[in-house]
TrEMBL record, chain A:
This is AP-4 complex subunit epsilon. SUPFAM superfamilies: ARM repeat. SMART domains: AP4E_app_platf. It comes from the Eukaryota. PANTHER family: ADAPTIN, ALPHA/GAMMA/EPSILON (PTHR22780). Residues 645-655, 752-763 have a biased composition (Polar residues). GO terms for biological process: intracellular protein transport; vesicle-mediated transport. It comes from Pygocentrus nattereri.
From TrEMBL, chain B:
GO terms for biological process: intracellular protein transport. Keywords: Coated pit, Cytoplasmic vesicle, Golgi apparatus, Membrane, Protein transport, Transport. It comes from the Eukaryota. The keyword Ribonucleoprotein does not apply. It is found in: Cytoplasmic vesicle membrane; Golgi apparatus; Membrane, Clathrin-coated pit. One of its GO terms (molecular function) is clathrin adaptor activity. Belongs to the adaptor complexes small subunit family. Subunit of clathrin-associated adaptor protein complex 1 that plays a role in protein sorting in the late-Golgi/trans-Golgi network (TGN) and/or endosomes. The AP complexes mediate both the recruitment of clathrin to membranes and the recognition of sorting signals within the cytosolic tails of transmembrane cargo molecules. Adaptor protein complex 1 (AP-1) is a heterotetramer composed of two large adaptins (gamma-type subunit AP1G1 and beta-type subunit AP1B1), a medium adaptin (mu-type subunit AP1M1 or AP1M2) and a small adaptin (sigma-type subunit AP1S1 or AP1S2 or AP1S3). Binds to MUC1. It comes from Pygocentrus nattereri (Red-bellied piranha). The keyword Cell division does not apply. GO terms for cellular component: AP-1 adaptor complex; clathrin-coated pit. PROSITE patterns: CLAT_ADAPTOR_S. This is AP complex subunit sigma.
Amino acid sequence: MRELMVRAMYCEMLGYEADFVYIHAIKLAQQGTVLEKRVGISIFLKQNMYYLQDLQSTNLIEVCMALTVVSQIFPKDMIPAILPLVEEKLSHPKEIIRRKAVLALYKFYLIAPNQVQHIHGKFRKALCDKDPGVMMSSLHIYLQMIKENPASYKDLTGSFVTILRQVVGGKLPLDFNYHSVPAPWLQIQLLRILSLLGREDQSMSELMYDVLDESLRRAEMNHNITYAILYECVKAIYTIHPKAELLEKAARCIGNFVLSPKINLKYLGLKALTYVVQHDANLALQHQMTIIECLDHSDLIIKRETLELLFRITNAQNVTIIVEKMLGFLRLCNDDYTIIDLVGKVAELAEKYPFTIWFIQTMNVVFSLGGDLMQPDLPSNFLRLFADGSESEEQDRQLKLYAVDSYLAVLKGDCSHLPQRFLQVISWVLGEYSCLKEDVDQQEVIRLLKKLLEQRGVSSETRSWALSALTKLCKGPGYAELALELAESLSSSLDTVLRQQAHELCLLSQDSQLHARVLPHPAPSDNLEVDSSLSFLDGFVSDALAAGAAPYKPPHQRQEELSQQRALSLEPYGLSLPVTMSSCTLTDRQSPTFLSMSSDLSVLCVCSANTLMLEGVKRVWGKDGYIPQKEPSLTPAAVDEPSDVVQSPDQQGAAETSLPEPEPEPPQLDQEKQQLASSLFVGLGSQNSMSLLGKTEVAVPRFRRKARQHESASTSGTSESSSNSSHSSRSTTDSFLYGGLLEEEPATPIQNSYHTLNSTSENEGAATVSAKEDKQANSSQILGKSIVSQRNCSKSLPVAFPHSSDSMVLQLPSELQELPHSDVVSLTSDPHLSVSCCRVFREDALLLVLLLFNPTETALRDVAVELSCEEPLMLNTEEYGKLWLSISNDVKQNLKLLTGGGDPLRATLNALKDSLQLHIVDIIGSEGIVACHLLRGGPCLMHCRVHGASLAVWLRSPLPSLPDCLLYHCQRALQEH
Amino acid sequence: MQFMLLFSRQGKLRLQKWYVPLSDKEKKKITRELVQTVLARKPKMCSFLEWRDLKIVYKRYASLYFCCAIEDQDNELITLEIIHRYVELLDKYFGSVCELDIIFNFEKAYFILDEFLLGGEAQETSKKNVLKAIEQADLLQEVNYSLSLSLPHAVFMV
């Protein structure tokens, strides 16, 4: 067995897989004699597992081996199991065990620092161990910990200094000497720790000066190991708070390094110099000649280090020559890592001194050498600098002309070997600035770009850059033909981005006005704002919804619904498509057979299955959201990648063309559709209200930002309907309000307030449930590219707002007659008073006109109308619990707790109950549960807990916007108290 | 220290020790790359190399290359001395070590390395102590071995 193991091990060493022997190795290691253990252990060093046994052994060597294995690469999750045993070994009588245990802990610290946090005290003990070996091992841990957090170990500086002094003074046993230098490893470790502790800390540094001086003095023997110590010393001296005397000595030391004939020392000298010139650039001057020599050294590593040094001492005078040297090195170099690094550095230098022809030249070389390896932000930085330009107009122009010239020259040559990034930069610059140059024929530029576009081996990203450059250039009627040709050839391209751009090009070249607006010249340098909430599409969406389209749902919700459906298992034939709510709502009303039919249809066909007359309604929302149609530039840019487009600098050029370009038709089209929809749905409204409500609510998340605005601005009675109405059919809103009115009106208390009717109706602008349908506003916003729409919803309506008009004859006031309005419907009447209602659609609002008719002789003094949509939901605790679990929309928030005597929770909840008509289900200890529901809508559950001085409220409701709305009113109610 | 490799002038790997977790594939790739780079260097060149974000310190002893990877802040010279000390240890243990010693007694070479470096850090720098530890372990192994050999015999005899 052992023989076989050894062979397996050899196989493993040679790089072959021998995993299958591991298990045998474990067996061997566990049962066998020491020899077998050793064989077993070495074979699966990387798999190491159960050494618990060995760690507990009394045999010194077995313990040693176990610790050795433990401090190899050890699996993280095994640490807790083994940690106590290792910890125990820290107080083992034998120093070799202690030392290994400390190193094992160091390894654990590296793997999982938080798991060994509790034994920091033991580390200190190890530091004070009487055996220097153990102390030395503990330094590894301290170095690591001090690296992470120097501040918390400052108190140890004194001890470290003492230790170093002892070491340097030769107080350690001779065993520790290495080539008659006392414990060099220990010294270096200590020096590193000290430099970390003394960094930017004068008081700490002062403690060290003496010992550093002594180290420098002692390390004079001519051996590698003393150089190692010297090097570390120098680094420490330059890291800590400076002291002139020491700096001088250190500088001399560096001189010795640099001048040394030994190449290793020279390298280290350069490295030290690189480190030092940050503090003192003059030092480099002393060694000018050596540096120059090193620059032409045959060893690339030396050269590389010299360039690094030069990079640090660059200034306005020498930048040209240094960059030249660096580029020279770049040409020779073939290591990717170095290229990336150097290219970055050259670009950094060049960008410090832009606006010169030299800058352009350098960057050109950088792009062609660095190629596609370089950091992706380099080209975009360059373009930004280039576009921003300098202060001097003329210089700027010169520069741009130069760039255009040079790029034209590049393109005229063979550009098949050029890196893609370079080609992209060229395309952008040509597209943007080639028109500055009068003497160059635009046709020529276009020809070159076209050549680039058709060239083989050009990536599609580059193609799209080139194409957008072409789009910029193709203005005016002269290019229509060319544009058409291009668009045609690309319209069958496999790349959708290219196809889209080709289409845009085609449209833009026909309409020069649009061209000028979409691609203004020069390109605006400030960032384009992108409306990621897509509010400019709201109008479109709401029309589509009004026309009966199914609302958009985020994928997770669809998943949820899908799983719900599965649980119901209503369908005999499982449908793999997510079935939307609309078909769910159908289940309530339709027969099962109809359901199976309608659910087989895709989302939108449900509408037609619904037997509503919806011809001409387009398929707008699909499985993954909006289905782009007709306006390719409007939707893909905005819907698919709203943030990507502008944020990623790579695509900036593309973004400029693909940003929303409205087409003239949509607004009109929308209005037509809107009218069609409203006329279609007027009669259907009330019977449809439930299902439509359910659907429209679901659509809210997408437009949440906007919906919230309404909610915060409107009152409890109106907020729900307003958020509905902003994206659903008006009929829904209406019928919903109807419901509210019908139920609430009889209960209307006639209060003693001093509003006169007319004035209120004027002041309040009537009951404005601002159902905004601002198509026109949308389109103009898009054009202006300031897409973030600010809606003025600041008007806050009171909970009760009376408004009415003189109603002897049931007729609307004249100023409202012009507007589209519904029939006047009588809501309620008794001998004293009859109330009618009428809805008026204004452009920016839905007016709700209440007509009061007073047949009696007595004068009607004051009227207060209370619109309310919510009412207490009577539940017991158990039902509440069930309902709570079945609802998924969560909102959490902290509310103010009323502190007016008694139980604050009870007081607060009662206050809420009084003002908001909530039902307090139960109060248990410091927690309370409350419920309410919309008149025709879903419930809203509220879970409150006293949390310090505030009330943590957790709301759940199937309607996403209801909790927010309720919360708002809770806040207001509590404020009023 | 991240890892240590020993390879011959022909590019054959003789010993490898990794102190950071890497997949076998990566290890192979790194080894191949490094062996190529180091072998291509001329004898008079600097013993340090920049490779990826690591620093490679290598030294050639006879036909064997000893090669260590350290982080950028680490001291290159002291790493050279670590290599040197390891060679000294091998030399002392085997008595004028040669490549064949390491090939045939690779486990000893590993043991010595483990005794000298633990978790990538120098653990015991004294030559005497390292060798003492190794000898003790060897002795224990011998004793156990002879015991285990004699035990079946004894049973058989009875």
